[in-house]
Design goal:
Elements: E1 4-8, E2 28-40, E3 46-56, E4 60-61, E5 64-71, E6 74-81, E7 85-89, E8 92-95, E9 103-105, E10 107-116, E11 123-126, E12 143-151, E13 154-162, E14 167-174, E15 181-187, E16 195-196, E17 205-209, E18 232-236, E19 243-244, E20 261-264, E21 269-271, E22 274-283, E23 290-298, E24 306-310, E25 337-344, E26 348-355, E27 359-366
Antiparallel strand pairs: 1-27, 2-3, 3-10, 4-5, 5-6, 7-8, 8-9, 10-11, 12-13, 13-14, 14-15, 16-17, 17-18, 18-19, 20-22, 21-22, 22-23, 23-24, 25-26, 26-27
């Protein structure tokens, strides 16, 4: 079997068991089953916490675009006049003449635990009974992009909560990797790529963050760096209360393809050389950009000190051959691969991620590649 393959696709989802059935009777489809949180379970099997972006089959009804929203009484449809929106991205629409920009989503995301075998080759079980759906007002438009790290005896999972109320990062915790308790908001601002280190630094939890804002400021002309979204770090005494580090983390560098933005991917894991992590970089092209995966090595005692940065030759790139048989389901015009976690498998790492914002991809990479 190849070392690069899709493990879970949109057609693998049984929408009859979707949480949206509590309120949405109209036909829906899976826009994407992708960007999974990833962890090794106590049994030795692996867990994919798959983001299911579920959309109405016909999002535009007569003169309205419709968005799905969670409420405590079930799911409802919000209507927006097509004359009052711009819709140049299949994943979202924007309300016209609004400053700041206001968006609506064409899908609502929930999380589906998919258990695969220890080598990441076969699906063992799909745990619909343990699916994670919106459960608070700060995630009423979806719970997105899980990232899982095992620290000590617990699995810590960050998610993005999407709502008109706020766009935040929330934390879940589990003792067995499958049953998660919501602990609440940990970052009260938009932060797409928070993921904990797999172990503590000087007795404290450490995490990668990637805060977003309305504007960014330019570096001097002679600086090697480019402004824009970048990887920062934060520390916490308990996993819930976070203070950003004063020192910067990883930034986009001139002379590379990752000039639009960068952000975290896998949880940093401790190796004899230091903390190894895989992250994504984006080349500006079209509305979405080209996403590739790179890697870095951080000092074990001071992770803000970057020992090595492989930001020129990609570690992982999008592979159109993987999605050839589901190309009719694709909606993004540019190549996207998005690493979301890794697991130790002896002489190699099993790396999970999303391919084309459509399906879950597994890649096996020899450990010697990181030396």
């Amino acid at each position: 079997m190849p070392d690069d393959y899709l493990i879970f696709r949109p057609d693998d989802v049984d929408l009859a068991r979707s949480p949206l059935r509590r309120g949405v009777d109209e036909p829906t489809h899976v826009l994407g089953a992708f960007n999974p949180g990833f962890a090794r379970l106590p049994s030795g099997n692996l867990l994919l916490m798959v983001r299911i972006a579920e959309a109405l089959r016909d999002p535009v009804d007569s003169e309205c675009a419709r968005a799905v929203r969670w409420t405590r009484d079930g799911y409802v449809l919000d209507r927006h006049s097509v004359h009052q929106i711009d819709m140049d991205d299949p994943r979202q629409f924007a309300l016209k003449d609004r400053n700041p920009r206001l968006l609506g989503l064409t899908s609502l995301s929930w999380l589906l635990p998919v258990e695969i075998d220890a080598e990441g080759r076969n699906i063992v079980a799909i745990h619909y009974d343990k699916a994670i759906e919106p459960s608070a007002s700060y995630m009423d438009y979806g719970v997105e992009d899980a990232r899982i790290t095992k620290v000590g005896d617990h699995y810590w999972m960050t998610v993005c909560g999407v709502s008109a109320e706020r766009h935040c990062t929330a934390m879940y915790r589990s003792a067995n990797g499958l049953d998660y308790e919501l602990l609440g908001i940990v970052l009260d601002h938009q932060n797409k790529d928070m993921i904990l280190f797999e172990g503590k630094v000087a007795g404290k939890f450490m995490a990668l963050t990637r805060p977003l804002g309305e504007c960014y400021f330019a570096w001097p002309e002679d600086s090697p760096w480019l402004g824009g979204p970048s990887i920062n770090m934060a520390q916490s005494p308990d996993g819930l209360h976070w203070k950003p580090l004063d020192t910067p983390g990883i930034r986009a560098r001139k002379g590379t393809t990752s000039t639009q933005r960068i952000g975290g991917g896998s949880q940093p894991v401790l190796t004899p050389q230091g903390w190894m992590m895989i992250y994504h970089g984006v080349e500006k092209r079209g509305a979405v950009g080209i996403y590739r995966s790179f890697w870095a090595l951080l000092d074990r005692d001071d992770p803000s000190r970057i020992l090595r940065l492989e930001d020129e030759v990609p570690l992982i790139e999008a592979n159109p051959a993987l999605t050839a048989d589901i190309a009719h389901q694709m909606y993004l015009p540019t190549p996207v691969v998005f690493t979301t976690g890794l697991a130790d498998a002896g002489d190699h790492y099993i790396v999970a991620g999303g391919e084309a914002d459509l399906a879950c991809r597994i890649t096996h990479i020899a450990k010697e590649r990181f030396r």
